[in-house]
Amino acid sequence: MTPAEDTTAPTIHAAGCVLWRPAAPTASATESTLHLCLVHRPKYDDWSHPKGKLKPGEDPLEGALREVAEETGYAATPGDELSTVRYLANGRPKQVRYWAAEAGPGAFVPTTEVDRILWLSPDEARRRLTEARDQALVDELMRSFEHT
Question: Most CB atoms within 10 A, among 60, 83, 127, 134?
Answer without folding.
Answer: 134
